[in-house]
């Protein structure tokens, strides 16, 4: 069996059946079961497959052609995440906060429909000749589609948004079909995530005011992980906290569990994106739900 | 979870392939499975009984379900090429056009923290210049052919610890002093990969253009309907790297040459100009032009 493709394998099954003719040999079952069930189901009950009929049917050969589903990783030990599969996380483990907050390096398509009022619940802003999400209203089609503050909209219904003004973007959305609006999104390009751990007193080690990080506590997890001042907190464990009062944010941090992943954005860019958005809208309408992962 | 693509062209290409696959020809394995028995029975001549039974008869062999469908489910079509759209696992990138571009991999900003060991050269230098930005220490300059370049440090990397001590809140001078006093045999640094930068992958059109106008290393405008526009490249950003190769401080002509020689898939590493200017403040431009490391990093 030099060429391990499906055709040859079928040949083998058929061949072996014929050779054994009418007598039911256990080795036959072994071969067939070996391929369609998890490796090691019948460990030593039957003779070694690797010697059968001079065929090279060792475990490695078969595994190469019949990938078995990977076993679930034990929590807290060596864990790999799909898109960042080179990170080792013995302490953080497979934390759900990181997975919710994770900024995906790539572009994706999102399909939206308008609600009965003809609205999407989305407000866009032009930054550096690109269009960015300024506001996602709670319980809106936009929040359902998973859009978040800071996402860059590359295309709306096939048209490039490059160079559009905020008004033009809103006009296009208004004129678009209510049934289906296709948007191409780049995930939060101006933001990044930092994962930190609480100490024995439950503190991460930074001070913030009006959502902006103003100072870092010495020898804290925040200091160790290089959290920076002059950055605004956009999300905590993936949940949007923009527009929330400071005590509310502190509350979310306190109940967040020991591993906290914060999504931050440099203040100069943040302030530009929310420019001319009424603070009342930010506080009352913005979507602050916990995203699904 | 939605499929992710490194560039818009990959998304469009993948969608076309998916549409083709949905409407297209049945893949070979289906025919092979049923074909074999027919073939052999044909060459079986007059040898009763048929030497190789029909696979369909195996359906109830020893109580095992071995119908064609079962086998199809377990056998993977070996002849799938790189372009055949197989369902990606959530979070993985699908890149039919960008493929396994070396530029993409060199430029990739890995989210996370890593440890590196640095030694000094015979003159006691590391070739590294650091700067305080927002209470963090960042790499401002990596000199060519220096120990820092060898270890893979790049402009914009955030240094979290030097020899076990947190760099949070240090001034640039304090950081340089720490490097100077450190053991020349081994300096242990904990680094976060280029936090202020991000990569954008674009494709050249038939005339070899990406669609950007660059002045002094900054993107000044985007061409309409170009790959740059489609992929959402922004103005007021500085280009730090092209396919992972540092281009900061290069003259615009040199930068254009690097872009021209870059191949069809170009991954640009960009940083907002506001932040860039903050980082290179008080960095002598002579130093930038003459000694900055512009080598192509290893993978």
UniProtKB/TrEMBL annotation, chain A:
Domain PDZ: 109-188, 193-268
Cellular component aspect of the GO annotation: cytoplasm; nucleus; plasma membrane
Superkingdom field: Eukaryota
Stored SMART domains: PDZ
SUPFAM superfamilies referenced in this protein's UniProt entry, alphabetically: PDZ domain-like
Cell compartment(s), UniProt: Cell membrane; Cytoplasm; Nucleus
GO molecular function annotation: lipid binding; syndecan binding
Main location: membrane
Keywords for this protein: Cell membrane, Cytoplasm, Lipid-binding, Membrane, Nucleus, Repeat
GO terms of biological process kind: positive regulation of transforming growth factor beta receptor signaling pathway
Protein name: SDCB1 protein
From TrEMBL, chain B:
Alphabetically ordered keywords of this record: Cell membrane, Cytoplasm, Lipid-binding, Membrane, Nucleus, Repeat
Cellular component annotations (GO), alphabetically ordered: cytoplasm; nucleus; plasma membrane
Pfam families: PDZ
Record-given protein name: SDCB2 protein
SUPFAM superfamilies referenced in this protein's UniProt entry, alphabetically: PDZ domain-like
Repeat among keywords: yes
InterPro entries linked to this entry: APP-Binding, PDZ, PDZ_sf
SMART domains the record matches: PDZ
Organism the protein comes from: Onychorhynchus coronatus (Royal flycatcher)
Location of region: Disordered: 21-48
Entries under PROSITE patterns matching the protein: PDZ
GO molecular function, one term: lipid binding
Domain of life: Eukaryota
